[in-house]
Amino acid sequence: MCGTCGCADSQSHSHEHVSLEQNVLAKNDAIARDNRAWLRKRDAIALNLMSSPGSGKTTLLERTLTTLARVRPAAVIEGDQATSLDAERLRRTGAPAVQVNTGAGCHLDAALVRSALSRLDPPNGAVVFVENVGNLVCPAMFDLGEQRKVVVISVTEGTDKPLKYPYMFAAADLVVINKIDLLPYVDFDVELCAKNARSVNPDLVLLTLSATTGEGLPAWYDWIAAQ
Ligand SMILES: Nc1nc2c(ncn2[C@@H]2O[C@H](COP(=O)(O)OP(=O)(O)OP(=O)(O)O)[C@@H](O)[C@H]2O)c(=O)[nH]1
Ligand SMILES: [Mg+2]
């Protein structure tokens, strides 16, 4: 696992490696619990969106924020290694967005989210969307204090991804299969992808949608409302 240890050769000193990793994750989990309590006091929730780079997290949030703003307050913590491009896109919807740059880091952690929450200062009752760094590996390990974990996969990525990145799909509460407008042009079997995802996580909720055309979005909004 990266982000928890700088060592290049974990095999030669695996005991130290494992205990350092456990230490880092235990500290993270304690801060995540504080974040959860902090959000609960404001009657707010956080939803952690994770995916490979380019699966459509920001596009889905652009549409969601535009629609949701009419119903309840929403805000975004935007995680990327570099730039504030995504936060700028999301602010154009009128929602507040705080950009967090992780530099060489490949995921958000609870401490980064804690300081972003205090900058964001979300109003009571808000839904705080956290867009994690595009990566199907490391973000799965780090509790941020979110209410739910959402994994976005798009139809251009292949149906085998839940099998090849099982930790991410095992951690998810919801899997969104995005870009279904492209199904006529790609070799992607939605049922097979769903079966693969359920084989690593039988409790998953699955939604198919197109963030670009809006197809399938009502079920996504219903899912958010139910949280
Ligand atoms: N055809 C189609 N394209 C989409 C859809 N959703 C997103 N895209 C396109 O996919 C590309 C990447 O979308 P983003 O929303 O930036 O993806 P992301 O997951 O936020 O990417 P990172 O933040 O870099 O991880 C853009 O060119 C979008 O226009 C969709 O439903 N259909
Ligand atoms: Mg993005």
From TrEMBL:
<feature type="domain" description="CobW/HypB/UreG nucleotide-binding">
    <location>
        <begin position="48"/>
        <end position="203"/>
    </location>
</feature>
<keyword id="KW-0533">Nickel</keyword>
<keyword id="KW-0378">Hydrolase</keyword>
<dbReference type="GO" id="GO:0016151">
    <property type="term" value="F:nickel cation binding"/>
</dbReference>
<dbReference type="GO" id="GO:0008270">
    <property type="term" value="F:zinc ion binding"/>
</dbReference>
<dbReference type="Pfam" id="PF02492">
    <property type="entry name" value="cobW"/>
</dbReference>
<dbReference type="GO" id="GO:0051604">
    <property type="term" value="P:protein maturation"/>
</dbReference>
<dbReference type="InterPro" id="IPR004392">
    <property type="entry name" value="Hyd_mat_HypB"/>
</dbReference>
<dbReference type="GO" id="GO:0003924">
    <property type="term" value="F:GTPase activity"/>
</dbReference>
<protein>
    <submittedName>
        <fullName>Hydrogenase nickel incorporation protein HypB</fullName>
    </submittedName>
</protein>
<keyword id="KW-0342">GTP-binding</keyword>
<dbReference type="InterPro" id="IPR027417">
    <property type="entry name" value="P-loop_NTPase"/>
</dbReference>
<keyword id="KW-0862">Zinc</keyword>
<keyword id="KW-0479">Metal-binding</keyword>
<dbReference type="GO" id="GO:0005525">
    <property type="term" value="F:GTP binding"/>
</dbReference>
<dbReference type="InterPro" id="IPR003495">
    <property type="entry name" value="CobW/HypB/UreG_nucleotide-bd"/>
</dbReference>
<keyword id="KW-0547">Nucleotide-binding</keyword>
<comment type="similarity">
    <text>Belongs to the SIMIBI class G3E GTPase family. HypB/HupM subfamily.</text>
</comment>
